[in-house]
Amino acid sequence: MTRAVSAADLAPTTYAWQIRATGLKVRVGGNRMAVDGLDLSLGTGVHGLLGPNGAGKTTLIRALATVVRPTAGSLELLGESAGGRGEHRALRRRIGYLPQEFGYYKRFTVREFVEYMAWLKEVPKADVPGAVQRAVERVGLADRADDRMKALSGGMVRRVGIAQAIVNDPAVLLLDEPTVGLDPAQRLRFRELLQELGRDTCVVVSTHLVEDVAAACTDVVLFAEGRLVFQGTPDELAAAGGPEHVGDSPLERGYSALLAGSGRERGSW
Amino acid sequence: MNGRVARIELRRSVAPWAGALVPVFALALLYLIPGPWAWDTVRWTEQWTSLAMWTRSLLVFLWPLVLGLGALQGLRDHRSAMGELLTSTPRPAWHRAATLAGTIALTLVAGFALLLVVGGAQVLAGGAYQHLGWLPISLVAALALIAAAVLGMGLGRTLPSPLTPPALTVAAFVFTNLLRTAEGPAIPSPAAPNRLVLLSPAVSQVREVLLTLSAPVHLGQTLWLLGLAATGFALLAAATRRGRLLAVAPVLAGSVLALLVLPSDPRRTYVVDTAAAAMVCEGRVCVTKLHEARLHDLAGPGEKALRLLHGALGARAPVEIRESTGLRDLLDTPERSRTAVLVDFGDGAIGKAKGEELTRALLGQGLAPACAPRSEREGGSMSDIVAQDIAAAWVLGDLKPLPGTAQDPDRQTARALPVWKRFRALPPAEQRARIDAVHEAALACGDSGALDQLPGGASR
Lengths: 269, 460
Prior knowledge:
Structural class of chain B: mainly alpha
Strand content of chain A: 15-25%
Distance between the termini of chain A: 50 Å
Shape of chain B: elongated
Number of helices of chain B: 20
Radius of gyration of chain B: 28 Å
Strand order of the largest sheet of chain B: 5-6-7-8
Distance between the termini of chain B: 76 Å
Protein name (chain B): Membrane protein
Transmembrane segments (chain B): 14-33, 53-72, 93-119, 131-151, 163-180, 219-238, 245-262
Order of helices and strands of chain A: HEEEHEEHEHHHEHEHEEHH
Keywords (chain B): Membrane, Transmembrane, Transmembrane helix
Shape of chain A: globular
Strand content of chain B: 5-15%
Oligomer: heterodimer
Strand order of the largest sheet of chain A: 6-7-8-3-9-10
Structural class of chain A: alpha/beta
Largest sheet of chain A: 6 strands, mixed
Order of helices and strands of chain B: HHHHHHHHHEEHEHHHEHEEHEEHHHHH
Largest sheet of chain B: 4 strands, mixed
């Protein structure tokens, strides 16, 4: 299935990084800064966003998805400021987002739901059927495409979530805990899909699972208490840890080492 | 509106249910429950205006139900926790709201139209008065259903609680019932202030078939319903608290404009359809345009009755037969005339009779016009009809009870026969004098009734 090439696809990019945050602060609730002075630049590739619970991963992803507005600092997505007021209509067409708590219309079939989301993402009308079919196939749900959403297992629902996120061929793909509910075989398939997507897309994957990062990410962003702790390749993360650090794998030891080093692993067990 | 997305909503929203609810509920009520909507002259399939009014009056139930269904649909985003995902999409929220509202409006209009087609086919088959004056009544009804659905969706989305749909349904049901209009008075009159009552989309039941709604009513209700629908739509599309507050503006504006336009007086709400009430005549027999189909059957027996009346009463005999168009309260004395035999097709003795039987009924009505009204809702009185039986028998020579009324023919005979025998025993001059007295008493409708003028007829 081919898609018509639009002017936007052919235009040279006017930005160096798909995501660029400078001194980014995002307030949640009353006065807690969930993201507190973040400097981050992300380009094409798969970026694993790691960090303990409450580190602010979800808030960061929501800010990147233009769902919450930054409190301070600047945030540029695809060369466009995502900080100010406004609808970011053109920008949002090029973002794919799977929220941590993925809600869906239970009475819709898989295909109807993905098609509905494609419409909301303003995919050109003529491209919709093809884009929907491709997205559903990519998450391996082609044989369940005409089943109602309420009849699906948790893992399948998650895959529909991924399908709707990629249906508009986004330039920035934001996946918050995409592997929750996937069984090991599905996780393997998902990692392949991530690698494939990362070739031409800036993919940000938030996860608890360090092994997901090792297998699929070109880049690791370690995040704690709203600040960047580490950014580098998985190998560099592994190199940061030694035998004295907690963990079953080099990556886990590197993760523990960096969090311990930053003194930010309080309140954990 | 995107066709593919509209088709998805058509399958997956409450739209098909709302569309089916309207005709199914309405037809079940109209056909399965016996009520005035099934009674001859006021039947819902008898005349176009009656069809429009009866189907509109069902909004007493349909409007709250559709409002509740809309609210159920309005809960969808909240129940499915789609808010987060929807916020991240570029398409403006009102596109989504418009597609959903559009599909529901479509099915509601289709459902209501189906109801009108079912009724309209029977109206057409029955030779009713053809006109389009009824159309605004039904258009406002359709608009009311759409407004209810959209308002329900907006309120359901704004107050996303499982209690919202039932609470809205009950509240709307109380609203439409408190603001009901009683059909008993000559002009249907509400208990509450008239303008307020007209904010309810339901209308009075049909009793006087010549009544229709006036143009200011259509206009005012349209303004009010458009305001309601606009508020519902704004609530459905609003993303911010400010948007939700601003959403109240259309309904406020709509209600202010509506209250300026709507008539404060019931008499300017329900008005006689003058075109339908215009007389069409065949010789000396006249009926309203509305009942033109009955004229041919009435003309022959009518002419004969007029001739016989002239023979009986001489110069004082009525010279024409005319359908009564005067509005009156329920159980109120019907219109009287010295020069015309006034007929009401709601009176089964006349409305259901044909040929000789009709001549007899018209003679009775001409000699002793009934004081107690007879219609589908009013039984008339035994003494009135017995007086008519005897008066007609005096002209025709044999006593026969008048069928088609609430007064049982056998009991009529039982009551009339002794009086008839004594009356027949009187000398002819005395008989004529008594009949004159009957005629005068019946026209006067005083304390002394028509039957009291006959020997042994005084009420026991």
